[in-house]
Amino acid sequence: TYYQYTSLFHEGRLSPNDNNFLIQIRAYTTPEPSTQIDNPKEVIEAMREEDFQQSYVLNVKIVDTLLSNRDLYIDQIEKLFAFISSKFDLCEEFFKIYYSRGQYVAGLLSKLVDLWGAFVPTALSTPQHVSHATQLVVHLPENELRKLAENSDDLSECIAENLPEVLLGAPELEPERLECLGIQVKDLPAIKEYFRIARHLSEKGLYELTITNVEFIYQNILGENDLTLLRESNYTTIRSMKESMLRDRIDQDFDCYFRNILLMLEENSKEDSSAILAVIQHDTLDVDAIRAFLEPQTTLLPILKDVPNRLHSMLFQLNNIEPTWSNCLTFIECDVYDKDTLVTYLDQGEVL
């Protein structure tokens, strides 16, 4: 390699840029990933086998050339991926540049996902996790995205938590790609500028059940304006809507809806009797939580018949049941009848 160090270099198969690159790596200096190489095939030919398992291989032009000629560079590519998987902390600058300039980002990521099972969680644990997540959701085939989502929540959760930033870097992202991951968007209003995506995720129920998200869909997707109805009689209002989008999502995870929305709405005191009954018929709800929901309600249930037995005493204690002899008799005949509760209830008013 003596000729590379003389002042008599003559441009031929190698350009001065190519020669300078080779001089640097011979001096055990790693060039920047963006270092210009004019004849990458000739440079690869001049590199030693061990160079491909060191940081010297992390050059945009070299990686592009390797990935575009996979059958020709089988051994070199194997060494490239072995280095990345073993020294990933040294590769961050390369990925940052390659994502913006590389021609085979999809091929690079697909190969890493295929060969290195820990690639995704490792990449998402770095300071550049949003950039890695964005490139993965943009470039991986949809079947690979589904497979990743089936095996782990890492990518889905990262995308959901950082969706505004992801969309800033990939504004033309197809919403079907997010659907492949089954993400649960945390903050729909934060992506209102990307209305096409916000609407698609809303229609598919791919969002967390929060007051903010439900109100966003109610106003911006369904075109309803009166938030007072939604805040004073949330479940009643949603059940009465012709469009079933919100109702279907609530039915998927009613306990979450009950915990994060119904119990959190301080003004929610005007649910109608059918909505109240539908809520308390869910046997997975905690009794104390049901009490917290019933206490502010101003509507009385007309009959005790369809109310779960475990809640009979509570309804009489809270005066949430119509004062009729029929309801009193139903309570007396049930296996949780409590005489003191009934007496107290009767003392408070006239029974019809």
Descriptive report:
With 352 residues, this protein is mostly helical. The protein has 23 helices and no strands. The radius of gyration is 32 Å and the shape is elongated.
Protein topology:
Elements: H1 16-26, H2 40-46, H3 60-68, H4 74-86, H5 92-101, H6 105-115, H7 119-123, H8 129-139, H9 142-151, H10 154-161, H11 163-169, H12 175-181, H13 195-203, H14 211-221, H15 227-232, H16 234-240, H17 245-252, H18 254-262, H19 273-280, H20 287-294, H21 312-317, H22 325-333, H23 339-347
Helix pairs in contact: 1-2, 6-8, 8-11, 12-13
Largest sheet: none
Helix/strand structural class: mainly alpha
Give the overall silhouette: elongated
Low-pLDDT runs of 5+ residues are none
Summary of the model, kept short:
This protein is mainly α. Helices cover 57% and strands 0% of the residues.
What are the key terms here?
elongated, single chain, 352 residues, 23 helices, mainly alpha
